[in-house]
Design a protein that fits this description.
Structural class: mainly beta
CATH superfamily: Jelly Rolls
CATH class: Mainly Beta
């Protein structure tokens, strides 16, 4: 028996919009076990993760096991923030649907839409927030996949 958590309506809605990548139609039909990511046990991280949907497809905890790469799907509900974080793995997000603003190191937030990428080298501080739209993306971690040195600092002072 597969424990399946259905994807919430705002994610389905944004993946059905005209600008969304065509793969979103397939993603929205897959019975994934969507849940907030559990990268940290920090109570602030847990609170800020309630607006996130995540499924690891390939990786240590993925549907397909790998110790070399993490690859999955990740999204946030509208009007949400995922604060400053750092981790040893290098990371890239590829936007599939909706809009998100990505903050990289000390640069201001930059708006990303479907097709855009946000690359974060190892240990680069980065953050994400949404406005009126949810977003869905693909993420990839490469290098040190451990979450032992993942640090969540909370929301930026802006």
């Amino acid at each position: 028996m597969c424990d399946v958590t259905p994807l919430q309506h705002p994610f389905l809605e944004v993946m059905a919009q005209a600008g969304a990548h065509p793969i979103c139609a397939l993603i929205s039909q897959c019975p994934f076990n969507w849940a907030p990511p559990q990268t940290s046990s920090d109570p602030i991280y847990t609170e800020h993760s309630r607006s996130k949907a995540h499924v690891e497809l390939l990786g240590p905890g993925g549907l397909v096991k790998s110790n070399d790469v993490r690859l999955g799907l990740y999204g946030m509900l509208p009007n949400s923030e995922y604060g400053i974080r750092t981790h040893p793995a290098e990371e890239v997000f590829i936007m599939l649907a909706g809009q998100a603003c990505w903050k990289r190191d000390t640069a201001p937030y930059a708006l990303s839409s479907p097709g855009a990428r946000s690359y974060h080298p190892s240990m680069m501080p980065h953050a994400t927030r949404t406005g009126k739209l949810a977003f869905m993306s693909v993420y990839v971690w490469h290098g040190d996949l451990s979450t032992d040195n993942y640090v969540y600092e909370g929301l930026p002072n802006e």
